Amino acid sequence: MPAALTLDLLKQADHDTFCRLLAGVYEHSPWIAEGAWTRRPSDGFTTLAQLKRTLVEVVRAAPEAAQLDLIRAHPELAGKAMVARTLTAESTGEQRSAGLTDCSPEEFARLQQLNADYSARFGWPFILAVKGPRGLGLSRQQIIDTFARRLSGTKEFEFAECLRNIHRIAEIRLNEKFGAEPVLGNQVWDGAEALAVHSEPGFAERGELTVTYLTPAHQACAAQLLQWMREAGFDEVQRDAVGNLVGVYHGSDRRAPRLLTGSHYDTVRNGGKYDGRLGILVTLAAVRELHRQGRRLPFGIELVAFAEEEGQRYKATFLGSGALVGQFDPAWLDQTDAQGIPMREAMRAADLPATLDAIAGLRRSAADYLGYVEVHIEQGPVLDDLDLPLGVVTSINGSARYRGRYTGVASHAGTTPMNRRRDAATAAAELALFAEARASADEGSVATVGLLEVPQGSINVVPGACDFSLDLRAPTNAQRDAMVLDVQRQAQRIAERRRVQLQLEEVMVASAAPSDPAWQRRWEAAVRALGLPVFHLPSGAGHDAMKLHELLPQAMLFVRGGNAGISHNPLESVSNDDCELAVRALLNLLDQLAQETP
């Protein structure tokens, strides 16, 4: 086996040696290594992540024609070059790892047709990092499914997605050259896979992930996480009165305030594997590493895996983190789920006390904590678009949610003149368009009508009722409130003009949560220490940090999501390398705190 490449070797190399050492990282494109040579720091690359980012920047700065040549330098999957055995050694190994050299006749025919269709549509070969987000290889079915899905994409998106996959291919090749294995990242990625085996009936049979509050699948996840906390070295592990899982890793001074961190382990219906759970697993890996080193910090670490954040089974969003800040609504206990089961009964069935006294005892005191940090998948396309693995969150947007109904008069679609109609559906449609336009007029605001339904609707009946939802979000409370007021007023105007009745119920209001400057700076320093540029972005999604913000200074770190950052979706994805960087960033933040602590 040849000796692994090192950053010291690169630093000492002359131009020709530098380019030779990086040969093959990008397929038939030596100009990328040339570009990295000109961009190398005067003291050499200090981290592998810095080298990877520099190579990405070379490609991003290249003319579109050069980027297209790079894409076209790659072979088709299971294509003519593979059959003729003219692939590079790197491509041969990658296609073999995914089993593409062992396709059945039916699979091979399917891939050949997909190759032809894709080339005809886009004019370049389909590029996919077939070693996948874990680096072990995608299955042939996963490859075929991804191929078919992306065939319907736009030319602009596919061009960018091909380049993103090329960077992932290059990352895996660099890992192999350097003998680098993302051990901590693998722990995170594998943990998410292991948790994802637990899903609720009706979803599990279809291979879909759904874990809602206190169901058997939820309790199975809780048992697994508690076991992992113990194995990772947490000194105290317990499930609290609302089902949160709490692990404490003591510091050298048990009386010192702790760092609080965590995220949620429930999911939306047919959701992804990383929303919420990523933050829990990143902290588990970090504490496991501290325990492996036999290291205690001057402060303790308290990890809370929140039992509920999504509000899927009951209308009780942020139930888990809300309990920690004294905001558990007593009325929640009497709420019923779709099967008519009250929350109080579900709690008792899960061996929780289901009493307000027990829940009130969960409230934390700010004096006991240094602050709150949370690692989370971005749930958006920004980092993926920029080819950045990590982003520092500046603020969590404030939000307001409503359920509404317009009620008009159901009437015959053929005999009711247009000027005599009292159409509830067109009223809701008009409101949806107004909300879209109103949010677009603000910097950072968003508005969504996610539910739109005509109860007992018929193709030949003017809708007599239409149920709808409103989700309004903005970077500040004032901006959100102004948008809410405008939408409410317009909703009433529409009702009056269209001669329908309006019902509008507030479901949830959450305040914006700006990141604490000092904690944000710690995340920034942690990202820089990895050799990565610091990129700031707001969070359009709500997080448990929004609740803890009411008690403690907080700041979040985002991890890039693959597949254009899609979330609340089975296509939600992260790579083991990005997970590794997230764990390393958290460990660096812990080191900073240790140095600051007297």
TrEMBL record:
Q: Which Gene3D superfamilies match?
A: 3.30.70.360, Oxo-4-hydroxy-4-carboxy-5-ureidoimidazoline decarboxylase, Zn peptidases
Entry GO MF terms? 2-oxo-4-hydroxy-4-carboxy-5-ureidoimidazoline decarboxylase activity; hydrolase activity, acting on carbon-nitrogen (but not peptide) bonds, in linear amidines; metal ion binding
Q: How is this protein named in the record?
A: 2-oxo-4-hydroxy-4-carboxy-5-ureidoimidazoline decarboxylase
Domain of life, source organism: Bacteria
Which PANTHER family does the annotation name? ALLANTOATE DEIMINASE-RELATED
One GO biological-process annotation of the entry reads: urate catabolic process
Q: What is the lineage of its organism?
A: Bacteria, Pseudomonadati, Pseudomonadota, Betaproteobacteria, Burkholderiales
- Family matches, as CDD domains: M20_bAS (cd03884)
The UniProt entry's sequence similarity note says: Belongs to the peptidase M20 family.
Uppermost EC category: lyase
